[in-house]
Write a structure and sequence with these properties.
The chain contains 8 helices and 16 strands. With 288 residues, it is of the alpha+beta class. The strands form 2 sheets. Strands 7, 8, 9, 10, 11, 12, 13, 14, 15 and 16 form a 10-stranded mixed β-sheet that branches. A 6-stranded antiparallel β-sheet has the order 2-1-6-5-3-4. The longest helix has 17 residues.
């Protein structure tokens, strides 16, 4: 039985019910997070919780930092109840503005947010880590608040479908001639031995894995520059890679059907990848 959490109750997933008036359903009016769990321990909980609380505050859903902090216990119970304390797992959490008659403006004060969480078994892809991935470029047609992890992901869905149809894993998004991020990851280029990535702004998600990837790079002596990469620079970059909660550090070996560098994972990416994985597993007490 798969147990989920919905509005204060733990219940079988097939018994969970949402109102058709829920604003997450009719408007995509909500914020979500996904956390990684390794041997029963959540990685980077405080960073994920802070980002979720910030997002909820930014869109004015009345579910404050104290309530978000309480979801840590929910995650831990879901991991235990679903027999996921050994190995790896993810927990998805979502808070919407609640159920109310459909109006574009906010529902009446006192409308209770809808809170949902579910845990799943997760197995990291060794192939992605070891041999790399294929990626395509795609126009960044998302709204201008990509820093908020909203459940309205149509732009990302269209980009990922384009990648899927092209036989690729990720779509690298281009806005005004520069690389912003991946459809579901942060993106990086190695140019002249320096790791470049789009600076934090409203146009990219402040990725937790992005933060740890940059810290890992600095820790092993790789220079970092948060300066946008132009589409032209992408074509001549020595290396490209992505980072995310379920992708870790994944080298990009082809872009739009052409090899990146020599078409194999590069040495700088490998160096950062090793340091990142040591941080990831070391933080939860697992020796690799």
């Amino acid at each position: 039985m798969n147990t989920v959490f919905l509005n204060g109750e733990y219940l079988p997933k097939d018994q969970a019910r949402l109102s058709v008036d829920d604003r997450g359903f009719v408007f995509g009016d909500g914020i979500y997070e996904v956390v990684r769990v390794i041997e029963g321990r959540i990685f980077a909980w405080s960073e994920h919780a802070a980002r979720m609380a910030h997002g909820l505050g930014a869109v004015r859903i009345p579910f404050g930092a104290d309530h978000v902090a309480g979801l840590e216990a929910v995650c831990n119970r879901l991991v235990a109840d679903n027999d996921l304390k050994a190995g790896e797992a993810t927990v998805y959490m979502q808070v919407t503005r609640g159920a109310a008659p459909r109006t574009h403006y906010f529902p009446p004060a006192g409308t209770t947010p809808t809170v949902y969480a579910a845990a799943s078994r997760f197995t990291p892809s060794r192939a992605m880590r070891d041999t790399g991935i294929k990626a395509i470029t795609f126009p960044d047609v998302r709204w201008a608040r990509c820093d908020l992890k909203t459940v309205n992901l149509m732009g990302a869905v269209l980009a990922r479908e384009a990648a899927h149809e092209a036989g690729a894993y990720e779509a690298l998004l281009i806005r005004d001639g520069v690389l912003t991020e991946g459809a579901a990851t942060n993106a990086f280029a190695v140019i002249g031995g320096v790791v470049r990535t789009y600076p934090l702004s409203n146009y990219i998600l402040p990725g937790i894995s992005r933060q740890h990837a940059l810290e890992a790079a600095r820790a092993v002596g790789v220079p970092v520059s948060e300066v946008p990469v132009t589409q032209q620079e992408m074509r001549s970059a020595q290396e490209l890679f992505i980072a995310g909660t379920t992708t870790d550090i994944a080298p990009i070996v082809t872009l739009d059907g052409l090899p990146v560098g020599d078409g194999t994972p590069g040495s700088v990416t490998r160096k950062i990848q090793d340091a990142f994985l040591s941080r990831l597993y070391g933080a939860v007490g697992v020796v690799r």
